[in-house]
Amino acid sequence: MRLSRYFLPVLKETPREAQIVSHRYMLQAGMIKQSSAGIYSWLPLGFKMLRKLENIVHEEQAKAGHIAMLMPTLQSADLWRESGRYDGYGEEMLRMKDRHDRDMLFSPTAEEMFTDTFRSYVKSYKDLPLTLYQIQWKFRDEVRPRFGVMRGREFLMKDGYNFDIDKAAALHAYNRHLVTYLRTYERMGLQAIPMRADSGPIGGDYTHEFLVLADTGESEVFYDSAVTEISLGKRDVNFDDVDQCQAIMDEFTSLYARTDETHEEDLFNKVPEDRRRVARGIEVGQIFYFGTTYSEPLGATVDDGKGGQTPVHMGSHGIGVSRLLGAIIEASHDDKGIIWPEGVTPFHCGILNMRSGDDACDAACEDLYAQLTNAGLEPLYDDRDERAGAKFGTMDMIGLPWRITVGPRGIKNGVVELTSRRTGESEELSAADAVQRIVDIYTGL
Ligand code: ATP
Ligand code: MG
Question: Which residue, by CA, sits nearest to atom 16 of ligand 1?
Answer without folding.
Answer: 320
